């Protein structure tokens, strides 16, 4: 029996299947630190809330004085990167949708990763040393910004990147005000307790299309309806500088932005150093380094 077959047989979270199977109860904790004596910025109530609902909102993660310079830095990155650079993801109309690996292109963004209001929270939630699995700037301009369909990030990171366990957390830091009407992120609170297997084999080089519009690795409508019936929908709104922390398996998505009000954010994914990537569980090849770090996995130091 080949190593790839053995790898698939021992998969605790199977997905990208040729037939539907029942949802799977989560087999990993959502909060990895020892809550009885854990030290860190989050209180016991914060940790309990994250465990129960799968997300936390932290105002003033970056100060208002830093928002403007980061916006200027994003404009510089967009101008400096060659039009065909794979780290630039564009909307079908040509506008920039995402800039990947900004922490490796900008000292200012790297400082945000290591800041006192970001890194210690990641370490506390994941119970130790962490590295950046993926980072990007998301841009949703007024009138034309398109949304992200409902999905669990872990489903993709597990199937296409080989992330073994649910020991990763995302931090989305708002660079513009997030209103209920300009495409702000929606989450299904509590959905992180369940893994929802998806149907359909991963196409080769799936990331070339999925980063604009994902069709594989998303739950079907019946599954989403049942999840919303059980848990409801919450929405991340807040001032520029606020942050949404959410579990890697939390179902989330966003609508398009048809208002004149742009929405942008710095999106950071922290993974435990004890959860480094292995071979993909449901894809033929690994995604590029800027989407799923395999080389740059040393613990982040402040």
UniProtKB/TrEMBL annotation:
Catalytic activity annotation: L-ectoine + 2-oxoglutarate + O2 = 5-hydroxyectoine + succinate + CO2
Native source species: Mycolicibacterium neoaurum VKM Ac-1815D
Lineage, highest ranks first: Bacteria, Bacillati, Actinomycetota, Actinomycetes, Mycobacteriales
This protein's name: Ectoine hydroxylase
Domain Fe2OG dioxygenase residues, every copy: 131-288
Domain of life assignment: Bacteria
Record keyword Iron present: yes
Any one GO MF annotation of this record: iron ion binding
Sorted UniProt keywords: Dioxygenase, Iron, Metal-binding, Oxidoreductase
Family: Belongs to the iron/ascorbate-dependent oxidoreductase family. Belongs to the PhyH family. EctD subfamily.
């Amino acid at each position: 029996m080949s190593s790839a077959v053995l790898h698939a047989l021992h998969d605790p979270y199977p997905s990208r299947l040729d037939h539907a199977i029942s949802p799977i109860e989560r087999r990993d904790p959502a909060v990895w630190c020892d809550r009885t004596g854990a030290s860190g910025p989050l209180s016991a109530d914060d940790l309990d809330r994250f465990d129960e609902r799968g997300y936390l909102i932290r105002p003033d993660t970056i100060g208002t004085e830093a928002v403007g310079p980061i916006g200027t830095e994003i404009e510089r990155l967009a101008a400096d990167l060659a039009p065909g650079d794979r780290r630039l993801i564009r909307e079908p109309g040509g506008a920039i949708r995402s800039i990947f690996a900004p922490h490796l292109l900008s000292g200012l963004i790297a400082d945000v990763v290591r800041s006192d209001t970001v890194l210690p929270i990641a370490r506390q939630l994941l119970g130790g040393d962490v590295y950046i699995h993926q980072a990007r700037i998301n841009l949703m301009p007024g009138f034309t910004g398109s949304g992200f369909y409902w999905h669990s990030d872990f489903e993709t990171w597990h199937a296409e990147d080989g992330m073994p366990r649910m020991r990763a957390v995302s931090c989305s830091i708002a660079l513009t005000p997030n209103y209920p009407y300009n495409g702000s992120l929606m989450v299904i609170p509590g959905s992180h307790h369940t893994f929802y297997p998806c149907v359909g084999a991963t196409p080769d080089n799936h990331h070339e299309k999925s980063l604009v519009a994902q069709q594989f690795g998303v739950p079907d409508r019946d599954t989403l309806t049942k999840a919303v019936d059980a848990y409801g929908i919450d929405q991340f709104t807040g001032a520029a500088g606020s942050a949404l922390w959410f579990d890697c398996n939390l179902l989330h998505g966003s609508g398009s932005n048809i208002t004149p009000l742009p929405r942008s954010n710095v999106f950071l994914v922290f993974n435990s150093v004890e959860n480094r990537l292995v071979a993909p569980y449901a894809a033929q090849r690994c995604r590029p380094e800027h989407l799923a770090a395999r080389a740059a996995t040393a613990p982040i130091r402040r």
